[in-house]
Design a protein that fits this description.
Length: 323
C-alpha cells in the first residue's frame, strides 16, 4: 500500500509510543475480549507511563522544535530520514516477494540520494514514484507468523510479540545502527544526535493527530489499541484484510439464500389453498389448509371492490409497481 510518509526505526517506535495506531484504521476484525487483550492490566500501566514521558519530555521538545524550525527545513529533515528508511522498506519488499514494488522503492532511494541530495528533496515523488510502508513485522505476517496478543512496551508503545521481533529486524536494516555500533565515539555522538532530531521531528509531525485522538476517544487506551490492531491488519494485507461476519443468521444457515429456500419449501410443502366448497385431497397430513373464500363473494361486491396491486415482486428491487 501507499502512504505519504514512513519514518525509520526511531520514528516508527516513537509514533507507536504516541498514537501511531490512531493514524488510520481501515478494517475491523471482531474478536473476544479475552483473545484481544489478556495483558490489559500491564498494558494500561505502561500506556500511562509512556503518556507521562511524552507529556514531560517529548511534547515540550516537539513544540519548541516547531517554533524554531521553518517549514521547508522541517520537511527536508523528514525527507532525509524517510529516505534512509527506504532501505529497510526495499529489503522487506523483496522478502515479501513484491519485486515490482521493491524495484520502485530501490529506485526511490537511488534517485533521492543522488538527485535529491541525500534525501533532502523528494525528487522521486515529483516523478510519481510512490512512497510505500513495509517493515519486518509485516514481513513476518506475510509468511504466516501470528501476531500474538496486544502489548504495550515501555517507551516504544503499542505492539505485539510479532511486531516486537519486527522492530529488531527494522533496526538491523537501518544503516544508522551499524554506524552507532562500529563508528567510534564521534560516530555514536552523531548518530545519537541524528536520532534525537528524528524523534523530535516525528513527534512534531504528530501534533495534529494527537488532537484528533484526544477529541475522538473516550478511553484513550482502548482507542489506540483498536486503531493499532486495525492498521496493522490493513498494512499486512496491503489494504485488503479478510472480512469476518458475526451475523448469527448466516452462521445458522438462515442467510438470504437459505431463508428464501426455506420459506419457499415450507410454503410449497405445508400450505394448500382450496376453495371453500371443496375438501382437500391427497395433502400432506401436516399441511395447513388455507380456505379461499373469494369464490363465495357476491358478484357486485367483487366488482365494486378497489383494485389490488401486487407489489410483492418489487420488494427487493424497489422499483415502481406496474400500472
Amino acid at each position: 500500500m501507499e502512504t505519504q510518509k514512513s519514518t525509520p526505526f526511531a520514528s516508527r517506535t516513537l509514533s507507536l509510543l504516541i498514537i501511531s495506531g490512531a493514524l488510520s484504521g481501515c478494517s475491523t476484525t471482531p474478536t473476544t475480549q479475552a483473545d484481544k487483550d489478556p495483558w490489559e492490566s500491564w498494558n494500561r500501566d505502561v500506556h500511562g507511563f509512556n503518556a507521562d514521558v511524552d507529556d514531560a519530555i517529548l511534547k515540550p521538545l516537539a513544540k519548541g522544535y516547531q517554533d524554531v524550525t521553518p517549514n521547508p527545513v522541517d520537511e527536508s529533515i523528514t525527507n532525509v530520514f524517510s529516505n534512509i528508511n527506504d532501505i529497510g522498506v526495499t529489503i522487506n519488499d523483496f522478502l515479501q516477494l513484491k519485486f515490482t514494488q521493491g524495484g520502485m522503492d530501490a529506485s526511490r532511494f537511488l534517485i533521492n540520494t543522488t538527485a535529491g541530495v541525500v534525501g533532502i528533496f523528494d525528487v522521486a515523488k515529483m516523478i510519481d514514484l510512490p512512497k510505500h510502508d513495509e517493515d519486518f513485522g509485516q514481513t513476518l505476517g506475510f509468511w504466516g507468523v501470528p501476531s500474538g496478543s496486544y502489548m504495550v512496551l515501555p517507551f516504544l508503545g503499542a505492539s505485539t510479540p510479532r511486531d516486537t521481533v519486527g522492530l529488531i529486524g527494522d533496526a538491523l536494516f537501518n544503516p544508522l545502527t551499524y554506524v552507532s555500533f562500529f563508528g567510534g565515539f564521534a560516530a555514536n555522538a552523531a548518530t545519537a544526535a541524528a536520532t534525537g532530531v528524528d524523534v523530535t521531528d516525528t513527534r512534531s509531525d504528530l501534533m495534529s493527530s494527537e488532537k484528533i485522538l484526544n477529541e475522538a476517544s473516550v478511553d484513550r487506551y482502548d482507542f489506540v489499541k483498536n486503531a493499532y490492531q486495525q492498521r496493522r491488519e490493513y498494512l499486512i494485507h496491503d489494504g485488503n484484510p479478510p472480512e469476518e461476519s458475526n451475523d448469527p443468521l448466516l452462521e445458522e444457515g438462515l442467510g438470504d439464500g437459505a431463508a428464501e429456500g426455506s420459506v419457499g419449501n415450507t410454503t410449497q410443502n405445508n400450505l394448500t389453498t382450496t376453495p371453500n366448497s371443496a375438501a382437500p385431497t391427497n395433502q400432506n397430513p401436516n399441511a395447513v389448509t388455507i380456505i379461499n373464500n373469494s369464490t363465495t363473494m357476491p358478484k357486485e361486491a367483487a366488482t365494486d371492490a378497489p383494485a389490488v396491486i401486487d407489489n410483492s415482486k418489487h420488494l427487493l428491487d424497489l422499483s415502481a409497481p406496474d400500472e
